[in-house]
TrEMBL record:
Residues 1-21 form the signal peptide. It comes from Neorhodopirellula lusitana. SMART domains: Alpha_L_fucos. This is alpha-L-fucosidase. Its EC number is 3.2.1.51. The keyword Oxidoreductase does not apply. Alpha-L-fucosidase is responsible for hydrolyzing the alpha-1,6-linked fucose joined to the reducing-end N-acetylglucosamine of the carbohydrate moieties of glycoproteins. Residues 419-494 form the Alpha-L-fucosidase C-terminal domain. Transmembrane segments: none annotated. Residues 37-372 form the Glycoside hydrolase family 29 N-terminal domain.
Length: 503
């Protein structure tokens, strides 16, 4: 087990960056040197998530690599796990992937050979960056390296470990995909981030000598991609085989927050060691779930538009979430204090599939009208308003839990309540987002307008309203379909409310 020794001098620098004065006092008691990882993790965990990320709310995930060539998975599974599904008989999808592979590529065709077919000849980073900006996303997270170890930037460790060209600059595209996209994204107001897998399924060094893999491959590779591209987000993954001490994650993150060129801006997630999710790191993550309840820690739900992160040719139209569902997910997640990282899976030739691009465009259209109710908001004392009936329960957990947002907000089962309104707030300004507009009036229960307040619908303008005890009653505007400000969900804005709590 790796134990980091922190001298008083190094500890002082670490604490200056990562913890507040109160925490500094508790860690540096009696000025003794720290000889375990506890102090380093206390400093890392004590570093507040930068405000830009908390305000951003919506990001775009991108899974893209050699697995985009076969672009195959069983429906409901991940295409980016193609190599592992092909090689591991214990995987549920092994038989289906093996049969597909042998039929279409032959028994002797190795996964590594897909790198030469990963051409990206139609990749236009400027067009991608424009699509991301128009979607309303405020940050992008590109897979710099997935679990297959293939790097989308020039990296000597990858080539050396695999004993063959294993980067996008010396195989397939012959291009620095990370660098090209980073350059174009930074011409917009969107932040550029990177996904980085800690482990690699079939890296010879990882399979035989974990310590050498960490010291000679993982850490220098991590520093290389950070130094070259200065990402604003690092989404770590593949941590589950070993504890953080074996990965030397605390060492990497201490370097990141104290010495790296992006130390002040960068945001990290919670995937840095076995069993550490929702315990260590920066923002907490959930995957194909409902996110987390509002709490003291920043969190993010990440998912694909359909079932797979990487592009999967087996997924049909009906497997994709509608624009309406994705917009309602965004609003619901933000109302509970989370961020939404929505994935696209580009094709091997470098295109964003048109259906995915359409979804991004329609989310952007909605945010053009309703963005002020999303960006830079905080939670209200009540995150939502339920209709009559029994409140629905959201599935909780890290991975693949039940979350039917349309049932939650539009069509609950008999006897169950629905979320009539989702609340977000900026100071004394309250926003109420609804998926079903009433005919005559909308009542905001337990909401009291302050003196001088106005009530409006975003994209429409001021509305008539009255205060009836603790309830605020809004008269609905007369809107025919041609005058609707947007589709799928609508936002009421109360410019100033009476606050009765400390939030």
């Amino acid at each position: 087990m790796f134990v980091k020794i922190i001298t008083p001098l190094i500890l002082a620098g670490l604490l200056q960056t990562c913890v507040c004065a109160q925490q500094t006092a508790s860690v540096a008691t009696k000025g003794k040197a720290i000889t375990d990882e506890a102090a380093a993790w206390k400093a890392i965990d004590g570093r507040d998530t930068p405000q830009w990320w908390k305000d951003a709310k919506f990001g775009i995930f991108i899974h893209w690599g050699p697995y985009s060539v076969p672009a195959f998975s069983e429906v409901g599974r991940y295409s980016e796990w193609y190599w592992e599904d092909l090689m591991n008989p214990k995987r549920r999808s092994h038989k289906a992937v093996k049969a597909f592979h042998e039929k279409n590529y032959g028994k002797d065709f190795k996964y590594e050979e897909f790198a030469d077919q990963f051409k990206c000849e139609l990749f236009d980073p400027a067009q991608w960056a424009e699509a991301f900006e128009e979607s309303g996303a405020k940050y992008v997270v590109l897979t710099s390296k997935h679990h297959d170890g293939y790097c989308l930037w020039p990296n000597e460790q990858a080539d050396k470990s695999f004993g063959r060209p294993w980067c996008s600059t010396n195989s397939g595209p012959m291009r620095d995909l990370v660098g090209e996209l980073t350059e174009e994204v930074r011409k917009t107001d969107v932040k550029m981030g990177l996904y980085f897998s800690i482990y690699e399924w079939y890296n010879p060094l990882y399979k035989t000598k974990l310590n050498s893999f960490v010291d000679d491959h993982l850490i220098p590779q991590f520093k290389d991609v950070v130094n070259k591209y200065e990402p604003a987000v690092i989404f770590s993954d593949g941590e589950w085989d070993h504890p953080a001490a074996d990965w030397k994650s605390a060492e990497m993150l201490t370097w990141l927050f104290n010495e790296s060129p992006c130390k002040d801006e960068v945001v990290i997630n919670d995937r840095w060691g076995k069993g550490d999710r929702h315990k260590h790191g920066g923002y907490y993550t959930t995957e194909y779930g409902a996110g987390l309840p509002d709490g003291t820690n920043a969190w993010e739900e990440n998912r694909g538009m359909a079932h797979s992160f990487g592009y999967s040719r087996t997924e049909r139209f009906e497997d994709y979430n509608s624009s309406e569902s994705l917009i309602l997910m965004l609003a619901d997640i933000v109302s509970r204090g989370g961020n939404f990282l929505l994935d696209i899976g580009p094709t091997a030739d470098g295109r964003i599939p048109p259906l995915m691009e359409e979804r991004l465009s329609e989310i952007g259209d909605w945010l053009d009208v309703n963005g002020e109710a999303i960006y830079g908001t905080t939670t209200h004392s009540s995150t939502c308003q339920w209709s009559t009936g029994k409140a629905q329960e959201l599935g909780r957990g890290n991975y693949r839990v039940k979350y039917d947002v349309e049932k939650l907000m539009k069509s609950p089962e008999e006897g169950m309540a629905r979320k009539e309104l989702l609340f977000t707030r900026k100071g004394e300004t309250l926003y109420a987002i609804c998926a079903l507009l009433p005919d005559e009036t909308m009542t905001l229960h337990h909401v009291q307008a302050a003196e001088g307040a106005t009530v409006s619908m975003l994209g429409v303008g001021e509305l008539e309203w009255e205060q009836s005890g603790e309830d605020l009653i809004i008269k609905m505007p007369k809107l025919n379909p041609s005058k609707m400000p947007c589709e799928h969900a609508w936002t009421f804005k109360v410019s100033k409310i009476q606050l009765h709590d400390a939030s």
